[in-house]
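FAQ: What does the model actually see?

It sees only this:
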Amino acid sequence: MTREIVFRPEAESELIEAYEWYEGRQLGLGNDFLLCVEAALSSLQRNPALYPVVSKQVRRALIHRFPFGIYYLIDPERVVIISVFHARRDPNQWKSRVQ
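And it is asked to produce this:
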């Protein structure tokens, strides 16, 4: 079964912010970032249990070529993205989003 992917508003904001940052550094780099994010999302949508649990029930899929992880929860019908998070940021920021 393929689950629906749902972004929490904070995760969507982080994704947009990262895209804009990369695109501002080099034209097209933001698009490359989004393509890598889409590849990771496609993989976790097909098999969400593939990626490791990093805290409680939260799993992390690393984004190829970029120092970001996609933090998510699995429920019976969907995958909930709680954060698109840079690897050097304080992990307590995304951990506070887990209920």
